[in-house]
Amino acid sequence: EEVRINVSGLIFETCMCVLEKYPETILGDPLKRKRYWDPDREEFFIDAHPPSFEAIFLFLQTGKIKKPYEVPRATFMENLEIFELGSEIMDKYKLSEGILVDDVLELPEEEGTRRTVWQTFESPSSSAAGRTLAFCSVFFVTLSMFLFCVETLPKYQGKSCREEHHFDFRTGNTTTYHVPNYHNEFFLLETVCVVFFTAEYFLRLYSCPNRRRFFKETMNNVDLCSIIPFYLDLLLALVTRRCNMGSNSGVLKVTRILRALRIFKLSKHSRLLRVWMCALRASAKEFFVFLFFMIVAGVLFASLLYVAEQFNEKTQIKSIPEGIWWAIASMTTVGYGDVVPTSFWGKLAASACVVSGVIAVTLPTPIIVANFNRFYQNITD
């Protein structure tokens, strides 16, 4: 069935099946579009912006939304609302234009403590208590990351343990044990930080409107993984009464690194960090193309270098995997210098590798910068 649509004098014709693909819009819903029917002309008449509707009409046909270059963004967004394309399509358009989309805060159904707590944590700007909690969260994350880095310095590594001497009256020997030092300032400060993070996590879990969705969110899992290592180390130390038993375990060494995930909590309170993450997400395709090129080129130049250096007795590249390490370090312009070619043909292959790397690195950089500028400009406008 053919349909005729008049948008402020500009005529569009299509079939009804195109409009019905989006039943929530004013043209897809029979009850909504009935209000715009003109029986005399046998067409739908809508008083809207024709250039904007051209893009909307193309979206109805192809499913792709793109603002016309000559149409102001505010005008186009108004027309998206006029035709009731919905929040999902609106968010899709905003992301394509580099506009940060703030998630709609879902609140618990019942009024009371749960709703207040949830709103305080999830919408810090809504109250003075929320702003205070946000400040405390940023402070403890920063303190925790500072402690995580400083305690690895050689002069501080022994402070987590203290010596304890046990005298055996039967043998007359004295045995020295290294036991946890619970009075260590690093341990005390880390304990304060973890107590805050734990209270924050479980208060948010208690007050969240949908616990299944809560556990599916990545940042909530990051919060949980960042506090688990502290309790694992503490539990093992209390059970064994030995210092660094947890740190000597290969598995727990890995879990301790998870403490570094706390730095991602800052993205919740920093709009600039969100801009940077959105810019990287928007540049993901270009980044993966760059990564694929680096892998292919790394293997290719490593193979060439291995062949070129094979008959050189003083060669430092004795296998292709060693050549891949050298190729990646050279193409990314790092150049550690731990492995270098020594033959004429090896240096020739190295020159081609370095030039290719410089070209490859410069290709995705402008795209990432452009996406960052686009997102940043939208939050400053």
What layout of secondary structure does this protein have?
Elements: E1 2-7, E2 10-15, H1 16-19, H2 30-34, E3 37-38, E4 43-46, H3 50-62, H4 73-82, H5 87-96, H6 113-122, H7 128-150, E5 161-168, E6 173-180, H8 185-207, H9 211-216, H10 218-240, H11 250-257, H12 271-282, H13 284-309, H14 320-331, H15 344-362, H16 364-380
Parallel strand pairs: 1-4
Antiparallel strand pairs: 1-2, 3-4, 5-6
Write a structural description:
With 381 residues, this protein is α+β, with helices and mostly antiparallel strands. It has three domains: 2-96, 2-Layer Sandwich (Potassium Channel Kv1.1, Chain A), CATH 3.30.710; 119-269, Up-down Bundle (Four Helix Bundle (Hemerythrin (Met), subunit A)); 279-380, Helix Hairpins, CATH 1.10.287. The chain has 16 helices and six strands. It has helices spanning 16-19, 30-34, 50-62, 73-82, 87-96, 113-122, 128-150, 185-207, 211-216, 218-240, 250-257, 271-282, 284-309, 320-331, 344-362, 364-380, and strands at 2-7, 10-15, 37-38, 43-46, 161-168, 173-180. The strands form two sheets. The chain has a four-stranded mixed sheet. Strand 5 (161-168) and strand 6 form a beta hairpin. Helix 7 (128-150) runs antiparallel to helix 8 and helix 13 (284-309) packs across helix 14 (320-331). The two termini are 45 Å apart. The relative contact order is 0.06. Keywords: Ion channel, Ion transport, Membrane, Potassium, Potassium channel, Potassium transport, Transmembrane, Transmembrane helix, Transport, Voltage-gated channel. GO terms for molecular function: delayed rectifier potassium channel activity.
